[in-house]
């Protein structure tokens, strides 16, 4: 069983979730400039995590079924996040407050190891993402992400993937056909 499934099952068995919410398509879970220290688990649906710079949206991450997500900057600092988290389709999410999550993690060495492993994976994913952004060729960026995250192309609409990859939807469409 992978880290995410093991952590989720441990939270589920301990009945630690604070609530379950359902977001409509395009509804925001988190808005920039708000404090959001919750951890979320996506049961169904998908979300995008983005930042607006100079009135332009930049998608930095996606979350889909069986993923944990958070406004990690706010979770860590207890300060307002710079990011928006928005549902791309109807999405059902389990919510656990930071204080409850930290109690759970600290209650058991195995839970702490799972959390550490999850964070290490996230750091490595971010490093890969940074490498992707340095690659000038749209074709190379597309191939790297396709090889690393084939599920992304099944779960997320092309226009959002194109934005994530820093290319037009038309360019992505051409690359997918070639």
Automatic annotation (TrEMBL):
The name of this protein is Cyclic nucleotide-binding domain
Specify the species: Myroides odoratus
Q: Which residue range or ranges hold the Cyclic nucleotide-binding domain?
A: 23-108
* UniProt-listed InterPro entries: cNMP-bd_dom (IPR000595), cNMP-bd_dom_sf (IPR018490), RmlC-like_jellyroll (IPR014710)
> A Pfam family this protein belongs to?
cNMP_binding
